[in-house]
Amino acid sequence: MEIFLGIDVGSVSTKLAAMDCRRELVASAYMPTRGQPIEMVQRGLAEVKSKLPPDAVISGVATTGSARYLAGVIAGADLVKNEITSHAIAALHCVPGVQTVIEIGGQDSKIIIIRDGIVNDFGMNTVCAAGTGSFLDHQALRLNLGIEELSRRALTSTNPVRIAGRCTVFAESDMVHKQQIGHRTEDILLGLCQALVRNYLSNVGIGKEIKPPVVFQGGVAYNQAIVRAFREELGTEITVPQSPAIMGAFGAALLAHEEMSHNHKVSNFNGFGVVETYYHTSSFICKSCPNQCEIAQLAQNSHILARWGGRCDIWENQPDKTGP
Amino acid sequence: MPVTMPRMGNIHIPFKALFEGLGIDYIMPPPNTQRTMTLGTKHSPEGLCIPFKMTLGNLIEALELGADKLLVPGGYGICRLGYYFKTQAQILQDIGYSFEMIPVGVSERKFLGIMEIVRRLSNNAPWAKIVSSFRFGIAKMNALDNVERKVHRVRPVEAVRGTANRIYARAVAAIDRAPDYRGLKTAVSGSLAELDGVARNEARPMVVGITGEFYVVLEPFSNLDVENELGKLGVEVRRSTFISEWMKFSLFLNPLGINEKKRVQRAAAPYLNRDIGGDGWESVGEKVLHAGKYDGIVHLAPFTCMPEIIAQNIMPHTEEQIPVLTILCDEQLAKPGMLTRLEAFVDLLERKRRVAAGTAKAN
After folding, report:
1. Mutate which of A83, A107, A291, A293 to disrupt the B interface (most B C-beta within 10 Å)?
2. Strand A79-80 and strand A57-64: pairing?
3. Nearest residue of A to residue B38 by CA position?
């Protein structure tokens, strides 16, 4: 059985999606990254392997997300793609006529405008992470609620309070203020969800023409209160795919399939053996010029596999060059 | 009593030629680095733009090396940059430096103004010598821009990544060293021939126009070398702003009533019919002109730059359609974030092109 694998290593969570050649999802894995992208890729591969039928053969791998290059080296990716393209491809596959993709993840949020089946424009949060999953997590923790419970409680509100949503710091102090004068928790929670949606639309969505069908992806799309706030704010139906959090990984798998069938290539996949491999990461400060770039390197058995992080290319292009 | 000036792209090279030709003592600031940015940011009000911060950093680094005459742009009618020298002088005094600030008029008496300043710095050198040194400086500037234009075309299609950059770095050094026209000619023709001979791949590159604010377009440090990153993604950049062109018009042709920007401004007219300071009017015009001609546009703007923010908000509404990616440049701009956006932008352009060619699959 031919399998195409997509690996999405984000700032907060790591997702894997395995797809067959009919482009149906066969297996998936989802786990928190916890600052350990390498270990999570290994664990994710082990989990996916256990869910795949024994005759599965990996015919293509693509990585995406903010650790896409690192994950790409470890898995032996055939394609390394940015998360904007991956999410767009996944949305197009699930809802063919989609015109707008809203994606809210752990630390970034994007909007992708699609017309006639191709990406026409996109936007991404630049200077501010207000309204992303990490902030919701933080608030749930502060109120001693599970993240699922936050969504459930918010939905019971009939009288949401107005929360200042432009900045997470002010949103939090506004929430504390509202709570201290006696507003009900569910009203504050729904108010928060509405504030995040307003913030998203006025930051990421500014200047973009949001047309239905609208698809909402990313981990935050599990939050039904946010979905409801989007529906009310935009006045249109919002489609949430079955597994919104793994859409980036699924998009990567679709891209791997496209890449491999288009070019008739043999996959570079390093095999599930990488689960057992020990990788060593380290970093140093380049002293070649006063820029003082921090160079990160990935090694296996003291053999340097890759280097990243400079303003210029002197380390990136020469993994064999001896570091300090 | 060495003179210095802020850096911007390769502009220090022709000025070095001018100063050397006239025996003017000078110290050029060291190349832009993180230290320049850190110094500039530390001593600048936070809301000012990256051109202010970087040039302030340059002046501090040159003062540290012993320069004490600061040649800086000044004037009205551009944007707040015209008044930057006053603020920078105040900041540098407060730090404790003593220096003489010499504003070079960029709004009026441009050519004569510069000539008079140069004459004073050179202790009244004969006019003939000033003119010939000036011409040699301009020749170096033209040479640099000609080589750079060629690099823009070779970079996306070179078979071995980094080849064009290596030739370019050597060419810039050779042009800088060239003592006379003959040396300059050898340096340029040698580099151009070398670039022509670079082994290339078969790709037909995407073509992206680079537009936006003058300084961030011309100073690679401030835009994280966006042209090089696009080149690595297989994109050929076409920049409309080159220092040599700007000098030619600004110094010689504009005073004669020839305005090279007329065409761009006319193109912008249905959407923006007046100067809004800086290069905002031209950014809108270039979007209109590039539509249908290029695959996309990368619009570079300093964070907090009002003219470019106005332009950015007008651009999506023009009838002439072409994808635009705006990148706001400041000390917070980080490479991974910029690369994600550039990669997604290039994907967008490639899929558009494939669909246009009718070879795209269902998705």
Report:
1. A291
2. parallel
3. A291
Nearest to A62 by CA among A276, A217, A258: A258
Residue B104 to residue B72: CA distance in whole angstroms: 6
- Cα separation of A218 and A210, whole Å? 18
ipTM of the complex: 0.86
A83-130 pLDDT, tens digit per residue, is 999 999 999 999 999 999 999 988 888 999 999 888 989 988 766 666
Separation CA B249–CA B335 (nearest Å):
34
Give the largest CA-CA distance in chain A.
65
Q: What is the pLDDT of residues B4-25, one digit of tens each?
A: 999 999 999 999 999 999 999 9
Residue B3 has φ and ψ, to the nearest 5°, of -95, 150
Report, as an integer, the average pLDDT of A256-282.
88
Which residue do the tokens 């064999």 mark?
A320
A82 near B CB under 8 A:
yes
Q: What is the homologous superfamily of the domain A97-240 according to CATH?
A: ATPase, nucleotide binding domain (3.30.420.40)
Task: Show Cβ contacts of residue A43 under 8 Å, excluding neighbours closer than 6 positions.
Answer: A29, A31, A275
Quote the CA–CA distance of A44 and A13 in Å, as a whole number. Answer: 11
Mean pLDDT of chain B: 91
- Cβ distance A159 to A178 under 8 Å? no
Interface contact A92, partner B, CB < 8 A: yes
Q: What percent of chain A has pLDDT over 70?
A: 95
Residue type, B291: A
Tokens representing residue B201 in the block: 């791949």
Helix ranges (H only) for chain A are 37-51, 68-75, 83-94, 133-142, 147-155, 168-180, 185-203, 224-234, 247-263
At residue A272, φ and ψ (nearest 5 deg) are -70, -5
Alpha helices in chain B (DSSP H): 12-21, 34-43, 50-64, 84-95, 110-121, 127-154, 163-177, 181-196, 214-218, 226-232, 243-247, 262-268, 280-290, 306-314, 335-356
State how far the alpha carbon of B347 is from the alpha carbons of A75, B224, B336, B344, in Å: 23, 20, 16, 5
Residue with tokens 């570091």: A323
Amino acid at A36: Q
> What residue ranges define each of the domains in chain B, with the CATH number in brackets?
3-125 (3.40.50), 205-363 (3.40.50.11900)
DSSP state of B108: S
Q: Cβ of B86 under 8 Å from any chain A Cβ?
A: no
What residues of chain B lie within 8 A of the CB of A263, using their CB? none
Could you say which of A85, A258, A290 has the minimum Cβ distance to residue B33? A290
CB contact under 8 A, B344 and A122: yes
Q: Say how far apart CA B76 and CA B80 lie, in whole Å.
A: 8
Token code pair at residue B46: 């936070």
Q: Which of B33, B35, B363 sits opposite A89 (nearest CB)?
A: B363
In this structure, which amino acid lies at residue B267?
A
d(Cα B117, Cα B130) in Å, to the nearest integer? 11
β-strand partners of A17: A6, A28
**Cα separation of B131 and B18, whole Å?**
9
| Chain position carrying tokens 């905002």 | B280
CA B305 – CA A313 distance, rounded (Å)? 30
What Å distances lie between residue B326 and A49, A195, A253, B46, B207, CA to CA? 42, 26, 29, 21, 16
What does DSSP assign to residue B255?
G
pLDDT: is B251 or B14 the higher one? B14
Report domain A2-87+248-275's class: alpha beta
